[in-house]
What we know:
heterodimer, A: mainly alpha, two-stranded antiparallel sheet, 2 strands, flat, disordered N terminus, B: mainly alpha
Amino acid sequence: MDDACSVNGIAIQHLNGKTKAKDVPVKSIIDKSERRFNGILFVAALFVVVLMLAILLTLIVASIPAIKTFGLTFFWGTTWDAAAEKFGALPFLLGTLITSFMAILICIPFSLSISIFLGEYFKEGAFPAFLRSSIEVLAGIPSVIYGLWGLFLLMPIVRAIETQLGVTPHGVGILTSSLILAIMIIPFSASMGRDVVTLVPADLKEAAYSLGATRFEVIKNVIIPYARSGIIAGILLSLGRAIGETMAVTMLIGNSNFIPKSIFDPSNTMASVIANEFAEATGITAASLIYVGLVLFLVTTIVNIIGTYVIKKVALEASKEVT
Amino acid sequence: MNDHTTIRLLKDKVFRGTVMFLACFSMLPLLLILYYITRNGIAVINWEFLTQLPRPIGEVGGGVFNAVVGTVILIILSSILSVPIGITAGIYLSERSEGKIANIVRLCVVVLQGTPSIVIGIVAYIWIVAPFHSFSALSGGVALSIMMLPVIIKSTEETLKLMPYHLKEASLALGVPYYKTILKVILPTGISGILTGILLSVARITGETAPLLFTAFGNQFMNWNLFKPIDSLPYRIFYYAMSPYPEWHAFAWGASFILVVVVLGFNLIARGVAVKWKVQF
């Protein structure tokens, strides 16, 4: 960029030479604007960094009272009692872990099918286009609407299943939340998976076909192994989404601060306990909830950075192989 | 040998069938959601629903006008806060794409994009609600603008990076200063991509509820004051859905219908802009 500027500078100097020294300030005016422009760009970029650090610092500072009081025991304390001012986050950690992993398990066969379907079987045509735009629609629906829908359709179904099985029919609970989470992350992970599957070089697939492999064998032995790290990264990013998802889970998890004994029990995730209790919290309760928020922030950040890094690497390697 | 081939072909067919079944089966929730929203939503929606304020339970009628207005105010507010910074930071990333600072900024964008919305809500609460001692539209706007920022930065960066280099060279060769080249040549050429990014980010925040729970909060009445709590469609849906009254549940569906139409509308416009205003090279 500096080259460009100096080229400019020379051009203008040349002009000035012709029209005599009267217009000399033009160069300095342009230089000034140039510098101001660069400064503005830099400030905006810096702002993003400062914003990120400020978020992290704010969370840390605001949760200091809770960190001081509970320290690391916060992570294995099992009671969350605002009246007794005793806070342990294990129920929420478990709730988040169980719901998001169950959601991922439910989601994987579906999203993988969609990615293979769109990336390998039907790349073009009316039906795949319909499927692709439906996925986009599904991804655009707000989470609170998923919650509302789950409350009036999914909950009665789960309740009926629970009655059949002879467990307490709460209707809301870990299973219901996992189902809604799975429905919510399928579009996201499917579109990531499709991108990775289409990145598999055609010559590899063609080589396998020329040896007489069936399509299933090509998918199993060429596409999946080649796309493995990308698929795993996509799953990681979906996991990050599931962990941080708030509204639908808050509406369907049943809001119970105890350690769940089965997948039919009501529970709470880190996000849902904040959503439920933060507005009325003060003092050490608020600090503990912010502590939970800090943990949530760190976990999703790590998961996201790893996922993004792997995806980028996969795309880079694919582009190298093409050229 | 023949047997072996038959089994392989059979496996292929079974796999193909499974994939197609699962792919189509995952459309079922979408159809169900859209069906429920349309059926339950249209039943409630009429002129009164759109133009009246919510009434207390027991009284017939009422609407969600304040929530619609609140959502519009929140969108405008957060766009004002995030669009200028987002575009400028995006230009920075595309122009100075190499280098340590750009990589750090990019990392921050990834982190911001992945930050759970509820955490952003907490931060906006600490920054704005706590010092002012009141829930406010302003804090909601700040929370939503933090959510918009990474989307705008990313789309701006990616659009501008695709600009052919000879465009810039041609402008510089004419003696146009660097900053004018960016502002008057590169930026207008990439406007469709940037606008698409902004519209998509608006679509993303229109339906956000979690960051509003303890920032904009919600308000039964009409409010134009930015320093007072303000209602929004997603919050109203949440509030009505969690209430025990069937009348309010019906209202929640009506509000959901409006929200889905608005969000999908933004998505559609974004796509239209991307196609129609795209500059061909």
